[in-house]
UniProtKB/TrEMBL annotation:
Superkingdom field: Bacteria
Pfam families: SelR
Reactions accelerated catalytically: L-methionyl-[protein] + [thioredoxin]-disulfide + H2O = L-methionyl-(R)-S-oxide-[protein] + [thioredoxin]-dithiol
Protein's UniProt name: peptide-methionine (R)-S-oxide reductase
Top-rank EC class of the record's enzyme: oxidoreductase
Reported cofactor(s): Zn(2+)
Sequence ranges assigned to domain MsrB in this UniProt record: 1-119
UniProt GO MF annotations: metal ion binding; peptide-methionine (R)-S-oxide reductase activity
Amino acid sequence: MEFNKLNAQEEHVMVHKGTEPPGTGRFNKFFKEGTYRCRRCNARLFKSDAKFDSGSGWPSFDEAIPGAVKETVDSDGIRTEITCAKCGAHLGHVFRGERKTPKNTRHCVNSLSLDFTPGAGEGER
């Protein structure tokens, strides 16, 4: 599988499981119609209608595109890491039970892990 070229910050987050500082990501306060994709492999991850402002400082989604995201319990046994199901790139973490949306789920994602395709293309809505 070929991957997109990543800059040092993107590699730190996506390959080495880093985290960008809260409130600094380009998609944190970004609310346009479209699809969020994996920055590393271009896989579709989240639709814009699942995005909400959680106040956390990172882009938040209450659901992923089915089959797009893999969940793995962190080594600390407390948090659940989310990775791209296609390429394994680190995206962030998922939290449940916070009651921030009716779906009661928050995928907390690093902006550096994402690209965005505007519009509601076929199968996107």
